[in-house]
Structures are given as structure tokens and as C-alpha cells.
Amino acid sequence: MISIDSVLVKTAILLLLAAAGRVQATVRTVQELRDAVAKAAPGTTISVAAGDYEGGLYFAKVRGEKGKPVVIAGADPKKPPVFKGGGDGIHLSDIEHLELRDLVIEGATGNGLNIDDGGSYETPSHHLVLRGLTIRNIGGKGNQDGIKLSGIDDFRVENCKVEKWGGSGSAIDMVGCHRGVVEGCAFVHDGSGGNGVQTKGGCAEIAIRKSRFENAGSRSVNIGGSTGLEYFRPALKEPPHAEARDIRVEGCTFIGSDAPIAFVGVDGALVQYNTIYLPKRWAIRILQETTAKGFVACRKGTFTHNLVVFKSDQWSEGGVNVGPNTEPGTFAFEDNHWYCVDAPNRSAPKLPSVEKNGHTGDPMFRDAEKLDLRLKEGSPAAKHGAEALK
Questions:
Q1: How many C-beta atoms lie closer than 10 Å to residue 196's C-beta?
Q2: What confidence score (pLDDT) does residue 4 get?
Q3: How many separate domains does the chain show?
Q4: Strands (E), 161-242
């Protein structure tokens, strides 16, 4: 028997939550989810019950407020709901103060999760949080992304996993995004073309931190890229222009890929305290793909306190590929640790500028065969690589 007191208490709680702008709804079907999102107000939490749901969902103008985001989350993080199929698994447009948490998206033929500004470049979507998402088996051989972000400001992507995306796509593709953090994520692919994380089209002030990349495309992190001029956010006005500015890659672990780090048409980037293990050709590429009038040559990258371990038969051009129309002399190299596992006497790289305080020698991984790249006690590389980032 339910007591009158318990009913009164529950009613009082609901009234308090409503007054505070925090309302919770639990949904069990796609239609219930559509209805709940359409009604969502600042502070609403929509809990999605465990189970399989049809993908191909589109939502526009989902808007919370500062301190009162709209949250769409799996009801049970241990049994997250799975959105299967569709063109884009889930597409959100023109959003503000939104959080997606503990969801799985798989098997979309286009992008897995696509979030944009609705085509209004001067009013970006903003204050987005993606946390605990799993996105897998997206697209085919084309330009399909696990997560596509276009025109998003002030965002965080935390503790997400993206596994297998389009052959020429990216795990996360950012176009014209600003003031964002990607942290604690895992990106797993088959080493074919495309990228792990890409920041292009006017991206700025983005940090990619403490994440793991396993064969994450041809370029694990593409700092910059190649973007049609009409897609830059904000729209291009007075030069100088760049594909990306002020990008940080730090505390990450890279396994495989043709080039874990690519600077492509960037004007200033910092790559520090990363562990790079057995790249297939280079540790770094310095390239310029956008050569339109007003664009700076790729310049001002800093590569410091990284740990790079490679094999001599998978090491091209001394580890750094420099393309035309770039300014490699503006790149700074300092206090990195290099090691060639099959020919230690060939550990020193060939860099486009003189490195300050470079190091070589066996870093003493705990179990490299099992890809446990933590360092043993007494490692000479203890001040380098992903573990050294404070």
C-alpha cells in the first residue's frame, strides 16, 4: 500500500524540480524520444531506456540555458541504448547548452553523430557536452565521420569511443569549431585512409588531451586540413587566414598510422607529452593543402617532450615529411625522446630545424608487445611521453 505521506513527498519533489527547471522524462520508443525532445525546456533530462532504437533521427533548436542544459542520456550507463542505422545516426542542428551521455550509435551509412549550426555561421551552436558515447561501424569507404561537428563553440567531448568510420572520413571531424576539448577518448580504426581527429575550416583554441589512437586513419590527428572556402566559420573576411590556430595535442598515445601528427595549413599549434609508437612512415607531416590568396603557409608548430619509438623499415624521410608552400623553419623541436627499436644507432631523426636537448635510447616500456606503453621504473624517457603530462 502506498501511503498518503509518500505520495505527498514525491509530489513535493516533482514540484521542486519543476520550479528549479529540472524535469526528467523516461522514454522507451523513438516516438517518445521525439516527443520528449520537442517539449524539452532548459533543465530537462531525457532518460532513454536500454534497448535498440532506429537511427536516422533529426532534432533542431534544442536549447537549454547556462546551468540548465537539456540532457539526453542512457537511463543505465551499464546498458546504454543503441541507435542503429539511418543516414546520420543522430543529427542535431542549431543547439545550445545540450549534453548527450551514455548512448551507442552504430551502423549509420552517413555520419554517426552530426551536430551543426544550422547553416548560420554567425550564430554557432554552443555549450555542447558529449560524454560516454560509443560510436562504431559508421559509413563505408567514403567521407563518413563518427562524430561531425560544424560551427560549434565551447564544447567538450569526454570519455567517448569511436571505432571504425568511413575510409576517407574522421573519427571526429571539426569544421569551424572553437574553444573545445577532446579528452579521455579512444579512437580505433583499421589504419586505412582518413583521420582520427581533424580540426579545420577556421578551428581555433581546441585541445586534444589524454586520448588513445590505435591505427586511427592515415593521419591520427590532422591539425588543419583542406576546406572549401565557403564552409569556413566564421566566414573569411580580412587575411591572414588559416585552416586552424592554437591547437594543442597533449598526453595522447598513438599506435600505428602513416603519420600520427599532421600540421596542415595551421598557424600555431603545440604538440607535447605524447607517446608515438611504430608509425608506418613518419612521426610528423608539415603540409599546405589550402593555397588560396590570404592563407598563411603552414607555420609555428611546436613539438616538445614527446616520446617517439619507430622501426627503421617504417621510417621515411627521417621521420618528418615536409610538403611545398610551408615554413618548416618556423617549427620548434625541443626535449623529445627518440628510439629506433631495430637499429638504435639510427634513432636520431632528421628534423627541419635544430632540436634543443633531444634524447635517444630504449624507453623501457612495460610490455610493448601487448601495447602496454607505460614506462618501467628507471626509464630514461620518464620526462617524456603521455605519462609525463601533469
A1: 32
A2: 45
A3: 1
A4: 161-163, 170-175, 178-183, 186-188, 195-200, 203-209, 212-214, 219-224
Which residues make beta-bridge pairs with 156?
A: 129, 181
Q: Residue 387: how many CA atoms within 13 Å on its side-chain side?
A: 16
Phi, psi (deg, nearest 5) at residue 80: -70, 145
Number of residues written out for the chain: 390
Specify if 149 maps to a domain. no
Span 309-358, pLDDT tens digits: 999 999 999 999 999 999 999 999 999 999 999 999 999 999 999 999 99
Q: Is the pLDDT of residue 18 over 70?
A: no
Whether 222 is covered by a domain: the verdict is yes
Q: Is residue 122 part of a domain?
A: no
Backbone angles phi, psi at 113, to 5 degrees: -125, 120
User: 207 in a domain, yes or no?
Assistant: yes
Q: Is the pTM of this model over 0.85?
A: yes
Residues with Cβ < 8 Å from 5, sequence gap 6 or more? none
301 Cβ contact list (under 8 Å, min separation 6): 223, 263, 266, 268, 269, 270, 271, 286, 330, 331, 332
Boundaries of domain holding 309: 169-388
Mean of pLDDT values over 291-310: 98
User: Would you say residue 250 has pLDDT above 60?
Assistant: yes
pLDDT confidence bin for 22, thresholds 50/70/90 = low
Strand partners, 229: none
All 3 cell numbers of residue 326?
A: 610551408
